[in-house]
Amino acid sequence: MVLVKEYQVLLPCSVEEYQVGQLYSVAEASKNNTGGGEGIEILRNEPYEKDGEKGQYTHKIYHIHSKVPGFIQMFAPEGALVFHEKAWNAYPYCRTNWDKCRDQISYWLGKHEALTSN
């Protein structure tokens, strides 16, 4: 038998106000970490509605070459430190897809089997 306990925290704002604040915080963080060809490139940022679910769809590209340690920069091939993120944010639920990231890592590790074998 499992005992489930639920705790609720009262917020000084409504759920809708919280969602607006969350979107603003993400946009500000993206802006502050972007510059000189590095950071987050936002391709699409638009509302969506599907099957009664309303939210925000974003497609971002993360350029992180200067954000990783030097030894990773030396070994990573061109384009390996660029990741695509597609997110469907319908607060409080969020679905995020990182397929290109997984494909790039699998391809790179496959070419460098010496790094993955025991």
UniProtKB/TrEMBL annotation:
Q: Which GO terms describe its cellular component?
A: endoplasmic reticulum membrane; Golgi membrane
One GO MF term, please?
phosphatidylcholine transporter activity
Q: Where in the cell is it found?
A: Endoplasmic reticulum membrane; Golgi apparatus membrane
Q: What does the UniProt keyword field contain?
A: Acetylation, Endoplasmic reticulum, Golgi apparatus, Lipid transport, Lipid-binding, Membrane, Transport
Q: Which reaction does it catalyse?
A: an N-(acyl)-sphingosylphosphocholine(in) = an N-(acyl)-sphingosylphosphocholine(out); a 1,2-diacyl-sn-glycero-3-phosphocholine(in) = a 1,2-diacyl-sn-glycero-3-phosphocholine(out); a 1,2-diacyl-sn-glycero-3-phospho-(1D-myo-inositol)(in) = a 1,2-diacyl-sn-glycero-3-phospho-(1D-myo-inositol)(out)
Q: Name one Pfam family in it.
A: IP_trans
Residue span(s) of domain Phosphatidylinositol transfer protein N-terminal: 2-97
Main location class: endoplasmic reticulum
- State the source organism's domain of life: Eukaryota
The record's similarity note reads: Belongs to the PtdIns transfer protein family. PI transfer class I subfamily.
Name this polypeptide is given: Phosphatidylinositol transfer protein beta isoform
Q: Which species is listed as the source?
A: Alosa alosa
Q: What is the lineage of its organism?
A: Eukaryota, Metazoa, Chordata, Craniata, Vertebrata
